[in-house]
Design a protein that fits this description.
single chain, alpha+beta, Phosphatase 2c, domain 1, 6-stranded antiparallel sheet, 5-stranded antiparallel sheet, 7 helices, 11 strands
Amino acid sequence: MHVYANTDIGKARDMNQDYYYVADETSPLKLYILADGMGGYKGGEIASKLATTAAKGYLESNFDSIEHDKESILKLIKSAIEYANMVVYEKSKENKDLEGMGTTLEVCLIYNNKIYIGHVGDSRVYRIRKEFMRKLTQDHSYVEKLVKDGTITKEEAYYHPKKNMLIKALGCTSYVEPDVLVKGFLKDDIIIISSDGLTNMIQDEEIYECIKLDIKNATKNLIQIANELGGYDNITVIILHNN
């Protein structure tokens, strides 16, 4: 498997509040995490790093002690995200400056030709299989709810003024209910994990074309395109190619 990852501050922000982790080749646990933080001065930066580190540590400490069936792995990922939520929430209570900080969180674990996903917020996980790219996660956003309810179309959602409004984030309340799911990860499948700094600037079709054209340089090229279009947010992209 080939892994490509990149992050960029973008053109409009003072700091990069995205944070990610990718397992190296020697790591026994094929774990890939992305968090997009939010909050006042340094709050988002602290929340995203804390959440990523807490979830990673929890999974590494407990993976060997569970049954490695589908239900047990999904339950472990859910527990890891709940633990990360508690860590961020407690930290926000300690310091007045960090009050209300939070983060999105994508946890992806590759095991036995499957990808196990835990998800909170509006960062995204996609899978490309053959000639088709599918979004595997559902944004926890106000606008996504409007689309689901049939109030607006997907096209209208892309340009909606409130598309950044989250209805669920990690660390903002004492408990969070993450989405957990499992999908196949077969030979030649490609997984994309990204923050909304990418997906708010570039349509899905363009992301697909860019990756298909040059997967080795796709993370850099996608970041460059997002910045050329305004770079209004931090941009992070992780690509996993099961070649």
